[in-house]
TrEMBL record:
The RecF protein is involved in DNA metabolism; it is required for DNA replication and normal SOS inducibility. RecF binds preferentially to single-stranded, linear DNA. It also seems to bind ATP. It is found in: Cytoplasm. This is DNA replication and repair protein RecF. Residues 3-338 form the RecF/RecN/SMC N-terminal domain. HAMAP family: RecF.
Amino acid sequence: MRLERLQLQGLRCIADASADLDAGFNIFVGANGAGKTSVLEAAFLLSHGRSFRSGARDVLLQRGAPGLSIFSTVRHDNGDLARLGLGRAGASRWDARLNGEDVPIGQLIRECAVVCFEPGSHALIAGAAEERRRYLDWGVFHVEQEFLPTWRRYQRALKQRNSLLRTDASLDDGLYGPWEQELGRSGSLIDAWRRRYLEALVPNLRNEAARLIPELGQVDLRYRSGWPEGEDLSATLASQRGRDQGRGHTTAGVHRGDWSLSFEHAPQREHLSRGQEKLVALACLLAQARVDAAHRGEWPIICLDDLASELDLAHQTAVLDSLLEAPAQVLVTGTEIPRALQGSSVKVFHVEQGQLSPLL
C-alpha cells in the first residue's frame, strides 16, 4: 500500500500543506523544528488514531487554528483506492471519514498500516509494559477481525469490575460474577490471538535481529499473559477479589500482560546499551512490518524519523538496503539526505516553516 497524496491543515506548525508522494522512498529534509516529523506523525495518526509523540492531544493543534485535518488517498497493491480523512475541532473527539462517509475510527485505521521508528522507539524495550502491549495489540488488530469488538467488551467489563471494587459497601458476589465471566471469555480470546501473533513474529524478529545486531546472538521472546499460567482467568479473578478490593483495581488479566526479549549474549535488558535498545526496537518494528505484509499481501508504509541521528552509518545502510529490496513505501526525515540513500532513486521534499516543496 502507499499514500499517494497527503494533505495537512492545522497540525502543529503546519498551517496548510500537501505532498504528492512517490511509491518508493520519500525524503523530507529541513532544519530542526521545520515540521518534518509532523509529516510522519500525520501518516501515523491515520493508522493508529494517536500520535507517536508524547504529550496531550491539544498540542497537535496549531496555535490559533480552529481545528486540524489530515486527508490522504491510499492505493493498495491490488489497485483499490481509499480516501481517508481524520480531523477534530479544538479539544473534541476525532472525526473519521472513509471514502466520503463518516465511520468509526477503528474502521479508518484498519484501512491504513504505518510502522514508525522514531527517537522514542527505544521505549518499546526500555519503557513500561503499556508500550509493549500497544505494539502487540496493534499487530493483532490488523490480523484478527474480531479483536477490536472483543477488546471493547473486555474494557467495558474491566471498568465495571473496577467500579465495584471501589465501592465501600459490601457487595453481593453475584454482582461480580457476570463481569468476571466476560473478562474471562474476552480475555482468553485476546490472549490466544496474542500468542498466535507472536508465533508468527518471532521468526521474522530473529531474521531482523541477525541483520542489525548479530553480536547479541539469537533472540528469544517470553510472553506473560497477565495471570498465572494454566489458570482460568475467571477463576483467578474470583479468588483475587478480596485483594483487588484492597487495591481498588483489577490486578489480573490481559491488561496486565507483557512480553520481553533476551539475547544469547545479553540475557537481561540491562545488558543492552541505549544504542542497542534502539536497534532491538527497530528489529521489532521491521519484523512487525513483515508479518503485516505476509498477512495483507502488501507492505505497510514505513516511517523513519531522524534516521541519521538515531543510527550510525553502517546500521542506516543495513536498514535502508533491506527496505530498498522490499516493495514498501518509505518516508524518511533528516536535516539532509541520508548518505546511504545518496545516488538512489528517491523523491526529496524540502520542509521549511511548515511548507513542503518537492526538490527531486
